[in-house]
């Protein structure tokens, strides 16, 4: 593919967004089951290196056992490790969940904060987790760079970066703000169904004509 001008790239991005909206709709949805902001925060911490489906299986019982933020804050580390064992990296996750919940109770009055700075001050919360919360709970325009977003955004030629934070900034420059939250939702769906990491179905992809990465698979 020959080098694009900024105008050509902007036109291509608009086509991509229109196709994504047409295919997947524009409803905000979260793949992690939760009823409260703090439940979502705990679920996202557990989702590191783990599927959302597995986290949802674990939280179905977990959120009944620990039905308040205070119960998580005062949880026994070893017991919580057993409760979340199947999500992997359970020692660090359990430790972070307890520390995070203690901080929410003691420093934030039991409320999940909304700013990036406050969220990333919590144990186990990086930019990705913070942006999930800001987007899903507070509808703050934010871009979540997970493995699907990283891989597919690079394939679409919207960034050349490897570092998630740098990718986030690149995407903020090329995507309209009103599409930041949707980008993550739609690209995860695409990554799970069509643009699968190990065997992308380029021939079936509705973005193929607008994807530089698809040319290699013609």
From TrEMBL:
Keywords, in A-Z order: 4Fe-4S, DNA damage, DNA repair, DNA-binding, Endonuclease, Glycosidase, Hydrolase, Iron, Iron-sulfur, Lyase, Metal-binding, Nuclease
Biological role: DNA repair enzyme that has both DNA N-glycosylase activity and AP-lyase activity. The DNA N-glycosylase activity releases various damaged pyrimidines from DNA by cleaving the N-glycosidic bond, leaving an AP (apurinic/apyrimidinic) site. The AP-lyase activity cleaves the phosphodiester bond 3' to the AP site by a beta-elimination, leaving a 3'-terminal unsaturated sugar and a product with a terminal 5'-phosphate.
Annotated HhH-GPD domain residues: 46-193
PROSITE patterns: ENDONUCLEASE_III_1 (PS00764)
Stored InterPro entries: DNA_glycosylase, Endonuclease3_FeS-loop_motif, Endouclease-III_FeS-bd_BS, HhH-GPD_domain, HhH_base_excis_C, HhH_motif, Nth
Top EC group: lyase
Positions of [4Fe-4S] cluster binding: 195, 202, 205, 211
GO biological process: base-excision repair, AP site formation
Cofactor(s) needed: [4Fe-4S] cluster
Name of the protein this chain belongs to: Endonuclease III
